[in-house]
User: Fold this.
Amino acid sequence: MTEQKKKKLIPIGIDDFERLLEGNYYFADKSLLIKELLDSGAAVTLLPRPRRFGKTLNLSMLRYFFEKVAPLIPSIGLPLETNVSRESGLSRRHLFNGLKIEQHADCMEHQGRYPVIWLTFKDVKTDRWEVCYEKIRKVISAEFKRHFDAIRGFLSKQELRQVQDIIAETASQASYENSLMDLSRYLECAYKAKVVILIDEYDAPIHAAYLNGYYNEVIGFMRGFLGAGLKGNNALNFGVLTGILRVAKESIFSGINNLRVCTLIQDSYANQFGFLEDEVRVMLAYFELENKLDEVKRWYNGYQSGSYKVYNPWSIINLAGNKGVIQAYWVNTSDNALIKDLLKRCTPEMKEDLEIVIKGGKVTKAIQENIIMLDIEKNDAVLWNFLLFSGYLTFENYRLVEDTNYADLLIPNIEVGTTYKNSFSTWFAEGSGMRNYTKMLEGLVAGEMESFQDYFMKFTRDTLSIFDVHGDEPERFYHALVLGMLATLASTHEVRSNRESGYGRYDVSLIPKDLSKPGIILEFKKVNIKRKETLKTAAQNALNQIKERDYETELRARGLKDIIKLGISFKGKESFVLVG
Assistant:
């Protein structure tokens, strides 16, 4: 066999541990996760990490390590001809040959010793509760079916009927809520060993439910399902759950007092998810891409995980598969639906802080590891934490101040920065369309004010409604507009907002990098009905404010001689632009 044929394959989309190992795919050895888990002694461990950070593969590795597999028995009930007994099970020991965990004999004693319940909810994403519940039933049904031959000889007639109903997806909701505990009991009887429960992406249905309006139904089901299986389950050896967030205890983990949560803030398991720099260096060298390391670091490194800096493994694997082409692999429209929706609804105050972050700065925020999804829209603090734990921000300088934990939040790398820019620039396409938005900005930066006026007034009529503006049209809209400008004009202009200049703070300024182009100052005003203002008089007042407070000072100090002043007024969805 030639050397080329022996070369490891690139494991794009491969998250089954056995297939990875036996299929000659490249593998970053994270097997010491097993030792850390065993050493912890925790009854239930929740490991929240951002999407595409290797959660499913790691959980699959745990399954193949711990699971005691019985030989298949024909459905008619006759014994299977095999030299492997039910007591010994089928061995997967060979999968761990040469891995780091093999060096720990005390850990290897646990290999292949326990029945395992393996559930993944990562594909349970839909827009209706009825369809979501159907998908959940299918996941549970498949696991009962997988274990049916092993457990059926230990079931009473009533239990057998109930199990058959679960497999047929016709059982009651109460039966499905109790199914995790019931299957644990049946497996303990069949294997004479306590059960390991592994649940991947437990919160995927919760995110979909939040977006689509059936949050309470999902929370109600998952509270009953996880509560029965993980709390007071005498057949449980230990359980491990992965997801993106720690959904607040009072919402879903109520009463599960044996839960140990290890988020990316902590050092526990910090090096087991994501690629360390040494792992990236070795992988790039293996695929002859070592000359890309510096660029790869800027694009994909920077996630803080405990005391480690880690890379997004999905990005690195896809980079290798694409022969070293640098691009945003993590960004995916469907996966980013929730983040785009939330960013659109955040307050003007948060949009101001987002401007700082997008420009490469940091903001200091209190860290709350419990996320109550329903509070995200009501509370900027919760949204900042959602961005952190979902991987859209990272942290530095984590510290305790009196009784509250704080950290500096920032965008980890270029790849994640593109997510924000794509979100902001596509907001407006939902209203008047990207073409009109682009034409509006082209007119603005070219100093073609008649074109800008026409496009802007049409644009606001079509677009304001998507920002849920209610009574704060100018404030919400202009911050959204600034973020959109940051996304679209960053290569040609410095976009500044709410800055001191002259004798006050202007709303927005555009400072061209080419000083031969015009600088632009925009001041927004909401029509004051009580003062009997009109759109035109409010826009004139905005222009007057620019002149009276000498907002041109900063732009003149930059060497700009051509400065366009714009007074922009709003009344509901109507707007008016005056040029000064």
Remarks:
- Confidence is low (pLDDT under 50) at residues 72-89, 468-473.
